[in-house]
């Protein structure tokens, strides 16, 4: 494991902490897209099927990966529970309108097209990679629809986007240091996912420099 992946994982965990902190302290899920959380749950559920076959004590790295996978799965399920049950009266269903079935269907088609000759598990893994690349879109659309973004929500999304950007550095490191040169799918999808955050990053950094609350243009 290299420093870029470790830093990326730390940012991912921080983003989860910030999301849950925002919901629990404000007793509200306003500004949080249930559809994005649902997509992430699908991503983690399909990508981490190896949890049923991997021995976590096989090595220190395997144990670390197992802990992280369980954390991502459980936190996604808990977030969905909070939005759909405990704080459902604060959920902004009116603006969370992205039609995610197009994203799911498109990811499934791409996984089949590019991995039709591989095993079912590899196709499912590819589906999770394609879907993760676009899973943030409902959340970004919701923020643009409402315009103003709470500070802690903006920090959550910034950490989530930064984690993906650091994974690009991780892939570059592995390309040169570990000679992992057949990761075109991860590179392409990771780059697309990071580019989706570009507009948000610009306004986030601008708001932080000006000391103002983040506002996104319609």
TrEMBL record:
Biological process (GO) annotations held by this record are: protein retention in ER lumen; protein transport; vesicle-mediated transport
Record key words, sorted: Endoplasmic reticulum, ER-Golgi transport, Membrane, Protein transport, Receptor, Transmembrane, Transmembrane helix, Transport
A Gene Ontology cellular-component term: endoplasmic reticulum membrane
The entry sums up its family as follows: Belongs to the ERD2 family.
Protein's membrane topology: Multi-pass membrane protein
Can you tell which superkingdom this protein's organism belongs to?
Eukaryota
Q: What is this protein called?
A: ER lumen protein-retaining receptor
Task: Mark the transmembrane ranges.
Answer: 61-80, 100-117, 123-143, 155-173, 185-205
UniProt key word Endoplasmic reticulum: yes
Instruction: Kindly give the Pfam families that the UniProt entry links to this protein.
Output: ER_lumen_recept
In Gene Ontology terms, what is one molecular function of this protein? ER retention sequence binding
